[in-house]
Input
Amino acid sequence: MMGGASDDWWVLLFYPVVFWVPFGPFVMAALGVWHAREPGLWPRLWSVLLPLEPVVTLGVVACRPGKEPGDYLLYFGGYVFGITVLPWLLGHGITRAVLAHRAHRAHRARRGGATGAGPENA
Output
């Protein structure tokens, strides 16, 4: 022990876990939007690599031998799916739906089907 600090350096791995809980859903939603707007290697790579450290670190702790089966369900359901996967799917899906709707409206406007801005032309 040096200077009153602990020698457990692995505790530093938990700082991203603490920040992932409040900010992770927003980051994953933004990555989902980025992937929907520009599909390719970089958005897909960032969508996998960015949440890897906080998710795997907590997974190692949550899925130790001797844990109850409910702990696994809580980890995968709440942390992996609820905080990481679901916001990405929502950001990606909503962006794809909006882009498809805009493309459909632009196609109808080019054909001359929509001239006004009323709800019947949306």
In short: The chain has one domain: 20-108. The helical segments are 15-37, 41-49, 52-62, 69-111. DSSP finds four helices and no strands in the chain.
